[in-house]
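Troubleshooting log. The previous structure file for this entry was overwritten by mistake, so regenerating from the original sequence record. Sequence copied from the archived sheet and checked twice against the printout by T.R.
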Amino acid sequence: MNDILDENAKWEGEIKDSPLYSKDLAPTPKEERTWTAWNLATLWVGMAVCIPTYMLASSMIISGFSWIEAIMIVALGNLIITLPMMLTGHAGVKYGIPFPVVGRAAFGTVGIHIASLVRGIVACGWFGIQTWLGGLAFYAIGCALTGATPNADLDLGKFIGFGLFWLMNVYFIWKGTESIRWLEEWAAPILIGMGLVLIGWGWYQAGGFGVVLQQSQQLETPTAVISTSPKADWDLSLNPIRDKDGQVKASEYRLSGQNEWTQIPSQLDFIPITGEAPTTVQFRMDISDTKEPQFIESSVVTVQEDKGPISMGSRLWQYLTWLTVMVGFWGTMAISIADITRYTKTQKDQVMGQLIGLPGTMVLYSFVGIFVTCAAVINFGDILVGEDAPWDPVQLLSRFDSVSVVIIAQIFMLIATLSTNIAANVIAPANAFSNLLPKQLSFRGGGIVTAIIGIIICPWWLLGNIIGILLFVSGLLGPVLGILIADYFWVRKTELQLEELYKVDGAHKGISIPALVALLVGVAVVLAGFYIPALSFIYQISWFSGFFVSFVVYGLLQPKPKVA
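Regenerated output below.
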């Protein structure tokens, strides 16, 4: 590696006038390679500890998986994505160049804009979403200080919080990559400690691990299911939340089309229904301590239709779909990790740093999300149905009575979200936009463009469909990653001609036709699965199908470099 860097110094002066060259895109010199395995591990701790990580496993439980199944999917998905992460990180260490420059070898000096902008725009979307979530922590702090009741809808306070957190992100963008390294080193132990404190709270308040995790069985079961009945028109099965002693918290329920509340029977097996099938149900709990009646009401819950037992094949596809979502969660970073590994000293540093930092942290914080939410269902008496469980940690922490506890906890959430956003959603798009106009747009300028787009996309409207977005994005990112890995390892055997990557009329000029064809074929295969019902299984595993199709097509089409 040192020989390569020494050789860079000889030709770097010759290409500094190239429109493809800038200081931010040039190979990182030896003296600036200050990141160790520990730095990279803490980076991944800082990125993985975030609100979406906390909520991912919960989404699996709501869709019917047990907590053990959810954790296994998280673990397997992150082990899978760590492998290509280490492969694409190799070029960053060996040559000291960021992803847009590495990608010029595969896509061409013009074609790389297609791949890097796809990756960059996705990151801008995530930047906006994470900034909105961080702003909600500011909003919760404001509510705690003023005594205001948090509003479930959009209001001015939430946009003020969004603006404040956006400015915090811009500060670190302006300060550059060394400030990001400092932020991650400082944040990592705090974030790990926060997770352990939350687990301790759940265990202490609820009375043990077994009691807490048993609650997940309630959360994975639908609250209300309707089925045909041999004795009446319908049988209704209800599953409101029970306390740690097994007693149903709610005292009454009301079905759609009814004005009166009905006492919940002592045995919640099947409730016979005559006439039209109910579409919704709501529960309430009597908390009267005076002559005036007082009730806590649950959300209105949709009654699901009983579709019978799930076949083994359907269950398998559910596993694969969620595995694709989990892989796609870090699919963006797998493409652009060279943006970070270029600052590490050795391949061992980048491999060990990523292997230590990514899978373990994702598993830990997914478990924290499951455990703490299950504990909250027990500890907060007003949670009557699984749909009202506080899966969002900002929502959970805002429920505590102590103002000081709420503020401290929300500050931790700000740190977690900031450390994720800066490292995962700023570095790559900043380099991608800088690569568009290397002489005019620096890393700092590219970061500001990212921050502005993060506002324009209106992230408050994207939150409701994060899982769907991840599945779709996976189909776009998988092909890009397949081409990058095929080019670097299969075609070029990890040997790049650095000077050619910065020449307008060099060996990689224009658009690489093999890369363009491979990308279009990979994306077309994924979209075929999206639009054609018979091929929907392809879309359910969009990252894998797109990756392998583009990998093979590019490897077969791209001529192998001649050996001198």
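The longest helix spans residues 112-146. Archived copy saved in two places this time.
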